[in-house]
């Protein structure tokens, strides 16, 4: 199968177009125009190809599309959005799954194209525990797993108990939909026993959605020693769970609060709620 660098072809045509229209548009306008031109390019007939970019990929089988992706990556030929869109339009998940065991680039593209499909969640969980994988990549795996957390809840608990990627496992557990007393107790215990990460664990309790956590959140937010950031995150968690906290608090001596007020930063823009301190 012959490979075509459609992105390279587009870049050449774009350079010519920009040169012909120099000074006609502002930089911000080009930012809007270029994506539209790229989309239109997908339906432009290219004589050397004998087809449009979209038409070229539409004529390939599922297996040929995946093979093209792998070959592009192997040979360093840019992967166009036209190829990715063609793959996404097919039912090709089973053909993409083996790429999760491939090179770094194959894994990256596979996760992007597979997303949170049920068939990949357990594999994602296995990959999440591999020590040498990039942390950003692990975060993307976790983001997909969280959407289907109940499919791997047993694995999440087991990994947590072994101390494997503990924070990822807590985050995944917090997104389960099926109520589980053990999960609630784990999340609550982490909140109560980790004073250095109160905002994080408060968010897990909020995500989990068990209103029994309210009494513990309310007790914590009422403590005099909490910081302004902790206060705002606790307040958000309380409100997510349907509770309220209206006690007036003074954070004028809090260093972070001072930074916000001195620079006229609206705390509502940061925390997504009105400032009730």
Structure description:
By secondary structure, this protein is an all-alpha fold. The termini are far apart. Helix 8 runs antiparallel to helix 9 and helix 12 packs antiparallel against helix 13 (198-208). The chain has helices spanning 6-20, 27-41, 53-58, 62-75, 81-88, 93-96, 104-114, 118-128, 135-147, 153-162, 166-173, 181-193, 198-208, 214-221, 228-240, 255-262, 267-271. Residues 272-277 have low confidence and may be disordered. The radius of gyration is 25 Å and the shape is extended. It is 62% helix and 0% strand. It has 17 helices and no strands. The relative contact order is 0.05.
What key attributes describe this structure?
277 residues, mainly alpha, 62% helix, 0% strand, disordered C terminus
Q: How many H/I helices?
A: 17
Terminal Cα span: 65 Å
Mean pLDDT: 93
Unreliable runs? 272-277
* Overall outline: extended
What is the β-strand count?
0
Please tell me how large the radius of gyration is: 25 Å
Structural classification: mainly alpha
Order of helices and strands: HHHHHHHHHHHHHHHHH
Name the helicity range.
55-70%
């Amino acid at each position: 199968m012959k490979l075509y660098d459609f992105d390279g072809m587009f870049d050449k045509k774009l350079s010519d177009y920009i040169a012909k229209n120099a000074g006609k548009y502002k930089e911000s306008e080009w930012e809007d125009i270029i994506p539209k031109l790229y989309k239109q390019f997908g339906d432009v007939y290219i004589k050397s190809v004998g087809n449009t970019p979209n038409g070229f990929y539409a004529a390939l089988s599922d297996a040929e599309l995946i093979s093209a992706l792998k070959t592009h990556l192997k040979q360093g030929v840019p992967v166009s959005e036209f190829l990715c869109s063609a793959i996404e339009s097919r039912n090709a998940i089973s053909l993409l799954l083996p790429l999760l065991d491939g090179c770094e680039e194959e894994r990256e593209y596979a996760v992007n194209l597979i997303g949170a499909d049920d068939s990949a969640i357990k594999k994602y969980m296995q990959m999440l525990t591999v020590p040498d994988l990039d942390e950003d990549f692990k975060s993307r795996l976790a983001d997909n797993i969280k959407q289907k957390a109940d499919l791997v809840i047993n694995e999440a608990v087991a990994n947590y108990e072994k101390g494997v990627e503990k924070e990822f496992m807590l985050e995944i557990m917090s997104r389960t939909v099926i109520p589980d007393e053990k999960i609630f107790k784990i999340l609550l215990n982490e909140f109560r026993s980790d004073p250095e990460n109160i905002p994080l664990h408060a968010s897990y309790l909020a995500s989990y959605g068990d209103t029994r956590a309210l009494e513990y959140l309310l007790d914590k937010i009422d403590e005099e020693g909490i910081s302004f950031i902790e206060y705002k995150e606790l307040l958000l968690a309380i409100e997510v769970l349907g509770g309220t906290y209206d006690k007036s608090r003074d954070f004028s001596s809090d260093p972070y609060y001072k930074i916000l007020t001195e620079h006229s930063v609206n705390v509502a823009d940061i925390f997504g709620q009105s400032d009730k301190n």
